[in-house]
Known about the structure:
The complex is a heterodimer.
Chain A: H1 2-33, H2 40-56, H3 62-83, H4 93-115, E1 131-134, E2 137-140, H5 141-163, H6 165-175, H7 177-182, H8 187-213, H9 219-222, H10 224-234, H11 240-259, H12 266-278
Antiparallel strand pairs in A: 1-2
Chain B: H1 7-15, H2 20-35, H3 40-62, H4 71-86, H5 92-114, H6 119-139, H7 141-144, H8 169-190, H9 193-203, H10 215-241, H11 251-264, H12 270-286, H13 291-308, H14 312-333
Amino acid sequence: MLTHFLGVLFDGIAYGSLLFLISVGLSVTMGLMNFINLAHGAFAMLGGYVCVWAMSRLGLPFLVSLPLAFVASAAVGVVLEQLLYRRLYRAKHLDQVLFSIGLTFMAMAAATYVWGSSQQPVNLPDWLTGQISIGALQVGAYRVFLIALVIVITALLGYLVERTRYGAQIRAAVDNREVAAGLGINVNRLFTLTFALGSGLAGLGGGLGIDVLGLDPTFPVKYMVYFLLVVAVGGAGTIRGPLFAALILGVFDVAGKYYLPESGAFIIYGLMVFLLLLFPAGLIGRRA
Amino acid sequence: MMPLRSPVPNNLSSRHRWRAGEIGFWLLPIAAYFMFPGYLILGSQILITGLFAVSLDLILGYAGILSLGHAAFFGIGAYTAGLLAVHGWGDAFSGLLAAAMVSAVCGFLISFLVVRGQDLTRLMVTLGIGLMLFEVANKAASYTGGVDGLSGVSMDKLFGRFEFDLNGQTAYLYCLAVVFLLFVILRRLVHSPFGLSLTGIREQAKRMPAIGANVPRKLIVVFTLGATVAGVAGALLAQTTQFVGMDTLGFPRSAELLIMLVLGGTGRLYGGLVGAAVFMLMQDYLSGLNPVYWQFWIGLLLVTIVIFARGGILGGLERLQELLMHHVKEKARK
């Protein structure tokens, strides 16, 4: 019973860390640019497709195709940021929502056109399939890999934001964009870089998530709620907030599906409404 | 001696006077009834969707509440009317009234959750509630028919005389009458002091309390009203198509509704009707194409509207003019 519970907890944490990886970029761009980007899931989807394409067409190994997914999504992020997003930073939230819904629709239609509407398979290398036993606990090897990778990436992100010059500039711009620009920080370039990083991480998450979340053209809409939820509950503009929120959501979602399969998606939506009402500004408010 | 009038009521009464263009606008659906008898079913759908879009305009265009789950109320209305008719209550008008009341109660309860937060929170809460209701309809398949939809909706004759025929004549006139009646009421409302205070909240929610406006209460009222009208629209759809599908509750319907509204233009009531008509005629015309392409073009249209033509076609023209003026000035400087 207890080991079963621990197994569910473990799966939930793996699921949550994947959600975190995809959503953290959304959190930073939302905090930095106050931009409601519903199309964030489309970048994750792109990463997933690039990953599948690199493995099946180019015959690259899984671990090589993951950085490729990161690079592709980041590159598309830069292009779209320069061409389109930039024009809407000061627009009303309604315009941003409409724009990003439009972008999502286009991405979904394009994905259907290129890759078809079916689920994409992913062939994981042998060492990532099967189970690993930790004490009495049997856990999926891929889940362990996922959690380990996300821990490494989170540590790197934390270092980047807390310890480097770039991170200090981000924190300054999140707190007050005008003053940061007045101090000589090139805010526009900062936005572009951050958007690229966020999109790239989403793409990486999309590639990593094929085995867990699946991959088909409805991906951006199917998981849009989850990504937004992580940011809205965690509080935009931080790294710790979304991390907490993603882990909570991941554990609750997986536990709900294991123990109360009848309730379906209720748990996650109910939790979301509940948390949003309790913490309208997010679990962890950003300290100015 | 003539009593002096303050300028504000004067202004208000001139605002809500019917203009010739509006009367002409409402003659169009009547003309369509005689000119396109083969398209009355599509016509009813346009009227219903138009009413639905107007209900969103009320809360989004006027009060500025960002909602991604407005289809929830459309679906509540549709299922209420549909279930009543399935269980033998075939009277159309009382069915409509019941649907209005159920969606009003739901809208009132949900409004408390919605008025609290800011844009992002509101968006998430409305989205979450919409998805939850979708799950309810999905899980309660024994009542709602689940993914197969609710069929077997049979309506009595209207006034005991006019049957809902296959050509949709009765349905069209029934929809037109209900939509027009509700529109007249809503038009009156948005031109009243209450309507003006909603615009004030949209533009500057922080300053409205300073002139004595109870912002949360006004938002609750308008959200409830928007939900009620959406419920009536849903009930009309259930009664005239005699079927309720789960797509009435889905996220795509809420998203499409937003698209129609911005296509027509927000904050002017007619925008919803025009947007719905243009969108649905386009969809009907392009339905021979692959639906995937349709989705792509809709996405492109949306991105284009937001970037180049904010506020509909008029807004786009204004921007173009500004751009030209700017260029002229730059040249003069050189």
